[in-house]
Write a structure and sequence with these properties.
This protein is an alpha/beta fold. The chain folds into two domains: 144 residues, Medium-chain alcohol dehydrogenases, catalytic domain (Quinone Oxidoreductase, Chain A, domain 1); 155 residues, Rossmann fold. 27% of the residues lie in helices and 23% in strands. Helix 2 crosses helix 3 and helix 5 packs parallel to helix 6. The longest helix has 13 residues. The mean pLDDT is 94. It binds NADPH dihydro-nicotinamide-adenine-dinucleotide phosphate (NDP). The site of NADPH dihydro-nicotinamide-adenine-dinucleotide phosphate (NDP) has 29 residues, from helix 2 and helix 3. The site of NADPH dihydro-nicotinamide-adenine-dinucleotide phosphate has 29 residues, from helix 2 and helix 3. Pfam families: ADH_N_2, ADH_zinc_N.
Length: 341
């Protein structure tokens, strides 16, 4: 089968030549296993850290010469597990390749992924891990309350477009977002439940928050860290809550350069205002998944939320999709679609 391999670890910013599409044999199908043809593959910011050798992660790092992996949705072509017959749609962790042999026990969604309920891409986005991340962050990590003013960074991305819409449906009074560029900011207000949005490249976020939320914010859903986290710490009201979800602005380079240590010094705000900052990894919260799927599928069916994906075609363009995501080339969930082969 064709796979995307890491050729070498990037030196500085990753380049297309750090990746290559190669042919690899598939192992024979064992008892309890499935042969899955991948239809959609998830492109995730966390892959950036996994390209490095030094980064400590909650999952393994990639190895030069070996295939990448990641979340994917595929259809079972052959099965040696009676409970998961051919034709079943499953999600699993062996993306970045056309076909995969995997244990049926390592799949998720068998029998639940219904293209009649929501299109297949949505099952990797709004109804998948990124939608779930937004849901966990809002409901469990910051325990969103009706009346809250909520600020979300990377608001036009997969987690951000979900978080804005969920916050609104969960009773937030005001939802604010930041994104790169005026077009994304306009879309946030038009389509994704935001009351107002600011372009973090055009204006210091501290100024934008002072303008958009002069009375302060109650909740910050942090996807980027750095300057935006520092700005949010200033805007938070006493007793405010922060969900530390990711740090898009902190990839690569010297992590304790002058600007970054200045941002960290803003943590005195957390002391002064008795803030709660809580980091989380979504996979620790799987107990919430049935509730999440039921509620979000309901909102989708009622037409109360919008699922948005940016879809790139072909395995040979998958590495480019990752580089594009890191540079903000996506609106909503970034996916790679594999053709029928
Ligand atoms: P997105 O779809 O949000 O894509 C990443 C976005 O980050 C880009 O579109 C870009 O948008 C923005 N970005 C890139 N560089 C910067 C920068 N320097 N400053 C500000 N924004 C930047 O990705 P996901 O929705 O998949 O992930 C969002 C966040 O959630 C990530 O930090 C990810 O690591 C985290 N995450 C955490 C999980 C957890 O369990 N804790 C699970 C899943 C995701 P723009 O054009 O606006 O710059």
């Amino acid at each position: 089968t064709r796979v995307v391999c890491l050729v070498r670890r990037p030196v500085g910013e990753p380049l297309p030549t750090d990746f290559a599409v190669e042919e690899r044999p598939l192992p024979p199908l064992g008892e309890g296993q499935l042969l899955v043809r991948n239809l959609y593959m998830s492109v995730d910011p966390s892959m950036r850290g996994r390209l490095e050798s030094t980064e400590k992660h909650y999952t393994h790092n990639f190895t030069p010469g070996a295939p990448l992996d990641g979340r994917a949705l595929g259809v079972v072509e052959e099965s040696r597990c009676a409970a998961v017959p051919p034709g079943t749609y499953v999600r699993h962790q062996l993306g970045w390749r056309e076909r995969a042999v995997l244990d049926a026990a390592d799949t998720d969604g068998a029998g639940r992924i219904d293209p009649g309920l929501a299109p297949l891409p949505t099952w990797l986005g709004l109804l998948g891990q990124t939608g779930f991340t937004a849901y966990v962050g809002l409901t469990r990590i910051v325990e969103l309350r009706p009346g809250d003013t909520v600020f979300v960074s990377a608001a036009a991305g997969a987690v951000g477009t979900a978080a804005g819409q969920f916050a609104r449906l969960l009773g937030a009074e005001r939802v604010l977002g930041t994104a790169g560029g005026p077009d994304k900011c306009a879309l946030l207000v038009k389509e994704f439940g935001y009351d107002a949005a600011a372009d973090y490249r055009a204006e210091p976020v501290r100024d934008a928050l002072a303008r958009l939320a002069p009375d302060g914010i109650d909740v910050y859903f942090d996807n980027v860290g750095g300057e935006q986290l520092a700005a949010a710490l200033h805007a938070l009201r006493t007793g405010g809550r922060v969900a530390l979800c990711g740090m898009m602005s902190q990839f690569g380079g010297d992590r304790l350069s002058g600007q970054r240590s200045a941002d960290i010094n803003q943590l005195i705000q957390a002391v002064l205002k008795r803030l709660t900052l809580r980091g989380f990894i979504v996979r620790d919260h799987d107990d919430l998944r049935p509730e999440f799927e039921r509620r979000v599928a309901g909102w989708l069916a009622e037409g109360r939320i919008t699922a948005r994906e940016t879809v790139v075609d072909g395995l040979e363009n998958a590495a480019g999709a990752l580089l594009s995501l890191l540079g903000g080339g996506n609106i909503g969930k970034m996916l790679v679609r594999l053709d029928d082969s």
